[in-house]
Design a protein that fits this description.
This protein has 445 residues and is α+β, with helices and mostly antiparallel strands. Helices cover 38% and strands 21% of the residues. Strand 1 and strand 2 form a beta hairpin. Helix 1 crosses helix 4, helix 4 packs across helix 11 and helix 7 packs antiparallel against helix 8.
């Protein structure tokens, strides 16, 4: 019996287990969906995963990056180590019918699906007995804080020494959690179903820098003596206008995006605002364009402070890096996708200007960021909806389990070839130095 025939028999065994436990996986996904938690607040989700992995007999640790967990398998094996990831956090979308009534949290980005896929792969490999036939290690990592939101909360965690970075995967890299990992893998659902597609082997993605700007003015009576004040809200408005006027200076190919929200617009309507807080995200498809756009945004803030006569304190924080998917590992995933979908249902790749902190890891090691479907409506919107549990949960579990088998079966030759052919954009040290260079405080008076 040839190796290819043996692998097919192994795969069929795993697929049978996934079909048998389909309802169990769906119950996990639905439970996480009903209990959304935003980044670095995923205490319940972390605990749930720890219990699930422990029940499978896996050595599991929690709070690896303030929240989050890591389950180890095949610890006695010699060979490449794959980290299969699932993101724990939700977004905030209070208009969604299923959002948490108190916090507005809602899994409108499908992270509950990712976590279920990660767990389902672990469960199927173990229950089928296939795990121990693989020539390598697999860690299952629940990653916190992929969504870059609630930055003031994360700023406080950082000041308390509980985190170093606002996004979870940079935090993992900083803490050395991935030092022994050779390949990282995960899936991310997208509403590609509306375009007639059900899967894509990889996607593009922008990097970004996160910014918090505190505009400081002087309070006075807005009606009786506005000339005695310095209007911080006017400073913020002028700065945002300046950013808008920069748009024509950005190359279309760099896919620059700048967006803001004001989280504190003043203290009282009848007083000239003395403090206004503006959160800004600067995105671009490459690091050079990102640096250029960020400089122009800072010039806009500086100009507004000078024009109005107040002060602006800008805290720049590294957000996420542009996506650099590994084509070789994507091809392995693609071949397994063809088992379930026709050529017409497979998108060659997904081009998007969204951002993913898997992009950070993709600069250092081979990364699979497969795109799956089963949903309609925009991500992060009130219209987000799971319309096919099979496409959202079950088939992705199958595709990822089969991809891992291909990578680690037969002395892990495919995984070794992918690792050998990968050319990193940055070393870990160079990456961490880049983060330090980005993290700055600018004061403009």
């Amino acid at each position: 019996m040839g190796v290819s025939t043996i692998i097919e028999n192994v795969k069929d065994n795993v697929l049978d287990i996934i079909d048998e436990y389909k309802n169990h996986y769906l119950s996990v996904g639905k439970d996480i969906y009903k209990n959304p938690e935003t980044g670095y607040k995923e205490f319940r989700t972390t605990e749930k995963l720890v219990n699930l992995f422990t029940e499978l007999g896996l050595n599991t640790i929690k709070d690896i990056a303030y929240t989050g967990c890591r389950a180890f398998s095949n610890e006695d094996k010699i060979g490449p180590k794959i980290a299969l990831m699932g993101e724990l956090d939700s977004v905030i979308c209070p208009e969604h019918v299923d959002s948490n009534s108190e916090t507005g949290a809602m899994h409108a980005c499908g992270h509950n699906i990712q976590v279920t896929v990660m767990y389902g792969v672990a469960h199927a490999l173990i229950k089928s007995g296939v795990l121990h036939e693989l020539n390598g290690k697999i860690d299952f990592i629940g990653v916190p804080a992929e969504e870059y939101i609630e930055t003031e909360y994360r700023e406080q965690l950082k000041k308390q020494g509980k985190i170093n970075y606002y996004s979870g995967k940079p935090e993992l890299l900083y803490r050395g959690i991935l030092d022994d990992v050779n390949i990282c893998m995960m899936v991310h659902n997208f509403p590609i179903l509306e375009s007639g597609y059900k899967v894509a082997p990889y996607n593009t993605g922008n990097g970004f820098i996160g910014k918090i700007t505190r505009f400081m003015g002087v309070q006075s009576h807005a009606g009786a003596a506005p000339w005695e004040g310095i209007n911080a809200l006017n400073m913020a408005s002028l700065a945002m206008n300046g950013m808008s006027f920069q748009r024509e200076t950005f190359k279309d190919s760099d896919k620059v995006r700048i967006h803001q929200i004001i989280t504190n617009g003043g203290q009282a309507l009848n007083s000239v605002p003395s403090e206004v807080i503006l959160e800004t995200t600067v995105r671009a498809s490459n690091i050079k364009a990102l640096s250029d756009a960020n400089e122009k945004v800072n010039r806009s803030i500086k100009g507004a402070a000078i024009a109005i006569g107040g002060e602006a304190i800008v805290s720049d924080m590294p957000g996420q890096m542009p996506m650099n998917p590994d084509i070789n590992i994507s091809k392995v995933f693609l071949e397994n996708a063809k088992r379930f979908y026709s050529d017409e249902e497979i998108m060659p790749y997904l081009e998007t200007t969204g951002s993913f902190d898997m992009g950070d890891i993709s600069h250092i090691m081979p990364v699979l960021h497969g795109i799956t479907s089963g949903i309609t409506g925009g991500l992060h919107s009130k219209d987000y909806k799971i319309v096919s549990e099979e496409d959202a949960y079950i088939i992705p579990i199958k595709m990822m389990a089969l991809t891992i088998i291909d990578l680690l079966y037969d002395n892990a030759e495919k995984a070794k070839d992918i690792i050998k052919s990968f050319k990193p954009i940055m070393t870990k040290d160079k990456y961490l130095n880049y983060l330090k260079e980005v993290e700055k405080i600018h004061v403009y008076k």
